[in-house]
Automatic annotation (TrEMBL):
GO terms for molecular function: GTP binding; GTPase activity. It holds the Pfam family Ras. This is Ras-related protein Rab-18. Belongs to the small GTPase superfamily. Rab family. InterPro entries: P-loop_NTPase (IPR027417), Rab (IPR050227), Small_GTP-bd (IPR005225), Small_GTPase (IPR001806). It comes from Zea mays. Gene3D superfamilies: P-loop containing nucleotide triphosphate hydrolases (3.40.50.300). One of its GO terms (cellular component) is endomembrane system.
Length: 247
């Protein structure tokens, strides 16, 4: 799964969780790989199955940051495979009860994956493809609704990114439309190309800068708080497992 990105880890001051969301094929993984590797893409990237993450260390606004950037792909495929296996099981066993249980388990699993993906994120990048109108309309129909339903952080900074601007002759969504939607939804806005690397760095850096400006997000991401939270989680899991010797 995840891998450390380029750049030195030499003692970061803050650590932030960033999410990439948007329709399949809009270029989420390409933006991530291009940013982390700090180079042009070497060929096409395979569609992401499930969830992946990469880490990038960088200095923004005079602060050394660690960004853990999460990328999703075909989560729905997981559910369908799960349901399909469930259906086979039910055929095999001729048992409708089991099929219903599999269906519910699949839906529950999907919800669990989605909510844990969003939990504790300080920044969310919503990506659409400027050559695919449906990927833009799905921002309102699907993605902003998913953020509302799952984001646990009310101060979380959102950035809208219209990708693939290198394909200008195939453009279906104008820059003005992108900007208007960003303003309406309270997002920062940029257009980018993972292929030419136009605005790739800027998109992550502007988001990080904005996160640094919000005291509650800065507090959450500051290294001492991160360490304290990890310690607290360990203590809680010890207590749950009953393996702690002193409470
Ligand atoms: P899923 O993992 O399926 O959700 O897709 P994704 O959003 O991660 O898209 P991905 O990065 O896999 O890119 C999909 C296709 O678009 C690949 O063939 C990329 O090479 C291509 N692509 C990505 N970004 C750009 C871009 O800025 N310009 C052009 N021309 N092609 C791009
Ligand atoms: Mg992908």
């Amino acid at each position: 799964m995840g891998s450390p990105g380029a750049g030195s880890s030499g003692g970061h001051e803050c650590s932030f969780k960033i999410l990439l969301i948007g329709d399949s094929g809009v270029g989420k993984s390409s933006l991530l790989v291009s940013f982390v590797a700090a180079s042009h893409l070497d060929g096409d990237i395979a569609p992401t199955i499930g969830v992946d993450f990469k880490i990038k260390f960088l200095t923004v606004g005079g602060k050394k940051l660690k960004l853990t950037i999460w990328d999703t792909g075909h989560r729905v495929l997981f559910v369908y495979v799960y349901l399909w296996v469930g259906s086979l099981k039910s055929l095999w066993l001729h048992c409708s009860l089991l099929r219903r249980a599999c269906h519910q388990a699949g839906q529950e699993r999907f919800r669990t994956i989605t909510s844990s993906y969003y939990r504790g994120a300080q920044g969310i990048i919503l990506v659409y493809d400027v050559t695919k109108r449906e990927s833009f309309s799905n921002l309102a129909d699907v993605w902003t609704k998913e953020i509302e339903a799952n984001s646990t952080n009310k101060d979380c900074i959102k950035m809208l990114v219209g990708n693939k601007v290198d394909k200008d002759d195939e453009r279906m969504v104008t820059e003005e439309e992108g900007l208007a939607f960003a303003e309406e939804s309270g997002c920062l806005f940029l257009e980018s190309s993972a292929k030419t690397r136009e605005n790739v760095e800027k998109c992550f850096e502007e988001l990080a800068l904005k996160i640094l400006e919000v005291p509650s997000l800065l507090e959450e991401g500051s290294s001492s708080v991160v360490k304290r939270n990890i310690l607290k989680q360990k203590q809680e899991s010890h207590a749950k497992n009953g393996s702690g010797c002193c409470q």
